[in-house]
Amino acid sequence: MKRSYVDKNTIALMLAGSHAYGTNTPESDVDLRGVMIPKEKEYYMGFQTHFEQYSESTPEDLTIYDMRKAFHLISNCNPNMVELLFTDEKYYRVLRPEWQKVIEYRDKFISKKARYTYTGYAFAQLKRIKTARNWLLNPPKKKPERSDFGLPEKRLVSKDELGAFQWILVNLIKDSLDHLNFSDSTKEELESIDLIGQVQSRGIPDGAFPQIQKATGASDEWMQIMQMEQAYNNAKRHWDAYQSWKKGRNKHRAELEAKFGYDTKHASHLVRLMRMGKEILTTGKVVVYRPDREELLAIRNGAWSYEQVEEYAEKMQEEIALVYRTSLLQDKPDRVFLDKLCAEIIEEYING
Fold first, then answer.
1. Are 65 and 35 in contact (CB under 8 A)?
2. Hey, which residues does 104 pair with through a beta bridge?
3. Dihedrals φ, ψ of 328, to 5°?
4. Quick one: 91 exposed, middle or buried, by C-beta within 10 A (0-12, 13-18, 19+)?
5. Under a CB-based contact definition with an 8 Å cutoff, are residues 15 and 87 in contact?
6. pLDDT per position as a tens digit, 11-23
7. Are the C-beta atoms of 293 and 22 separated by less than 8 Å?
């Protein structure tokens, strides 16, 4: 899809990231995020023409989402997307009536799901902080070899065989979930998880192997090979991530990491996400331009110790759990209403 076509049909485009939060520095990239509606009906009625988002990174980091994908992400309280409904108009580069209509109904998008998305994103930051801190203090000494794990150079299990086993495992898990007495909202959350992706990227916990063997009927030899291959793959993935981290580090950021012993930029993001999540559950509003921006910048510049960041994350998780119980927000978004709203706006736009 050509940029000219995207620009022509963009209904919303605004500054995002640090410039929208008020936490940008002279070194900050300019992030632009927006929404468009493809004009041709083939995008909605055909099978060959497909569009979800358009991205480019020069001269600014630009991402424009298809209207339907934007609705999906915002209704799931995606922290990078829900703020599009609350960004101040002065940060807009494009704001058309179609998006103003969406903003009118922004309360229909907001729900208690914010508890899980915002804390989830925050703890993802904490995980990155811990990983990078470990690399700073205890860098890997050598590239892992298959022989280190008692494995021959040739794989004992092919990728196809491993993929088939993972597919069987995931479907056994899904069948089990169907028979458990979970609420509809919990089942909906579980169904949205990419279980195959989780198993492939994170592997199987060692303690779960006996239960998996019992459920699948796999032999002792097969399970041992699986554990050995997984241990090697995890070590290799860790090594590759370390090399990528070393190669891609921003010079100024690396200096801060070396000085304070952890990634202070991730810490600033963690604090912001935790506070925004609590604010949403309390007020139903997303405060994009941060009243605490000076403190967030100070945290980014090393005002907090690593221990303070870790303690704050745990404390805020408990506070958000308490606020969640008393929050007056709807448990989940009004998807029926939002689906109708999305269809109406697209139809009106296509018809001119």
1. yes
2. none
3. -90, 5
4. middle
5. yes
6. 999 999 999 999 9
7. yes
Q: Give the integer Cα–Cα distance in Å for 68 and 37.
A: 9
Find the helix or strand (DSSP H, E) in which 63 lies.
Answer: strand 61-66
Domains of the chain, each with CATH number or no CATH: 3-109+333-350 (3.30.460), 111-331 (no CATH)
Write down the residue that tokens 């991205």 correspond to: 55
- List, for residues 261-307, the tens digit of each pLDDT value: 999 999 999 999 999 999 999 999 999 999 999 999 999 999 999 99
Alpha-carbon span 38 to 44, nearest angstrom: 9
Cα–Cα dist 98/37, whole Å: 9
How far apart are the C-alpha atoms of 209 and 316, rounded to whole Å? Answer: 34
Query: What burial class does residue 262 get, using C-beta atoms within 10 Å of its C-beta: 0-12 exposed, 13-18 middle, 19+ buried?
Result: buried
Mean of the per-residue pLDDT values of the chain: 89
CB 223 within 8 A of CB 169: no
Q: In a 3-state reduction of DSSP, which class is residue 202?
A: helix
pTM of the model: 0.81
Please list, in sequence order, all residues whose beta carbon lies within 8 angstroms of the beta carbon of residue 121, skipping any fewer than 6 positions away: 79, 273
**Do the Cβ atoms of 257 and 132 come closer than 8 Å?**
yes
Is the dihedral angle over the CA atoms 347, 350, 351, 352 positive or is it negative? positive
What is the SS3 assignment for 269? helix
Amino acid at 335: R
CA dist 93 and 14 (Å) reads 5
19: region left, alpha or beta (phi > 0 left; psi from -120 to 50 alpha): alpha
